[in-house]
Design brief:
Blueprint (H helix, E strand, L loop, with lengths): L1 E6 L4 H11 L5 E5 L11 H17 L2 E6 L2 H6 L1 H8 L8 E3 L2 H9 L6 E6 L1 H6 L1 H8 L5 E6 L3 H6 L6 H14 L4 E5 L7 H8 L4 E3 L5 H11 L1 H4 L8 E5 L4 H11 L5 E3 L4
Parallel strand pairs: 1-2, 1-3, 2-9, 3-4, 5-6, 5-7, 7-8, 9-10
Helix pairs in contact: 1-11, 5-7, 9-10
């Protein structure tokens, strides 16, 4: 059985790439809902319905474990899917998100007391990151900044236009003297080098593509009942709900190889 990845668009490919490099032996299946990207401005109800359809499709493609490589889906749909959707038809399968592992990585830096969250509007409104930091019981101040224009920029290949927009989004966090900035969207690793240049070396950038691979490896070590069901053929499959020449180009550049992208209709 395969490890599935789902994102609202292409951003999750950056997470997929880092995981596949860390754990190259498994079979992987990637699904991007490029027809309805971005999710960050959608209602919680819409995000849940879209995510549930994606999860159902990935299960139909023989995925034992699914990573919601989308912070918006992790914030607005993951818990409901785990509690209400899986227990009936799929009690032995698992769906995991990216928010908790990212927060855990931030908490490992014991000296950090002020954290900035750069995320989509929906993720910010959900308060998901704030809630997870509060659960830790440490005195950490969390400041959020919605960045709704970044996902469309990444998806359209417009990174060269990102600098002034990034500066505008980062300014409020820098004024709060944050010591770390969490990239709370899986599209944002495409911008992390620009962000590091803008904020300087003293502020740590916590990027999901640098965190999720080891967190997933640790999860599989602790859950042998899941790991034993995964097939090891090194096969990779990529499906999108909409396919444009730009998506093909972006995917090839990010993965540094030519891949076959196929269309699927999730309904």
């Amino acid at each position: 059985m395969r490890i599935g990845f789902f994102d609202s668009g292409l951003g999750g490919l950056l997470i997929f790439k880092s995981v596949a490099q860390k754990l190259p032996g498994y079979d992987y299946f990637y699904l991007g809902d490029t027809k309805r990207v971005p999710y960050g401005t959608r209602s919680p109800q819409a995000v849940y319905q879209f995510t549930k359809k994606a999860v159902a499709y990935l299960f139909s493609q023989n995925c034992q474990l699914i990573i919601l490589a989308c912070n918006t889906a992790s914030a607005l749909a993951l818990r409901k899917i785990q509690r209400e959707y899986l227990p009936g038809p799929y009690p032995s399968r698992r769906v995991l998100g990216v928010i908790i592992p990212t927060v855990e990585a931030a908490l490992e830096e014991r000296k950090i007391k002020r954290v900035g969250i750069l995320a989509t509007s929906s993720t910010v409104q959900s308060g998901a990151f704030v809630k997870e930091f509060k659960k830790a019981g440490r005195k950490i101040k969390v400041f959020q900044q919605a960045a709704p224009l970044l996902v469309p920029l990444v998806e359209s290949g417009g990174l060269k236009y990102a600098a002034p927009i990034l500066k505008d989004y980062l300014r409020p966090l820098l004024k709060k003297n944050v010591e770390a900035i969490v990239l709370g969207c899986t599209h944002y690793p495409a911008l992390k080098n620009k962000i590091r240049q803008m904020v300087g070396r003293k502020i740590r950038i916590i990027s999901p593509d640098e965190i999720i691979p080891e967190k997933l490896a640790d999860y599989l070590r602790r859950h042998q009942e899941i790991e034993e069901k995964l097939t090891r053929g090194g096969r990779q499959f990529f499906m999108l709900t909409d396919l444009t020449p730009n998506f093909k180009k972006t995917a090839g550049v990010w993965l540094k190889k030519k891949i076959s992208l196929k269309l699927v209709d999730l309904g």
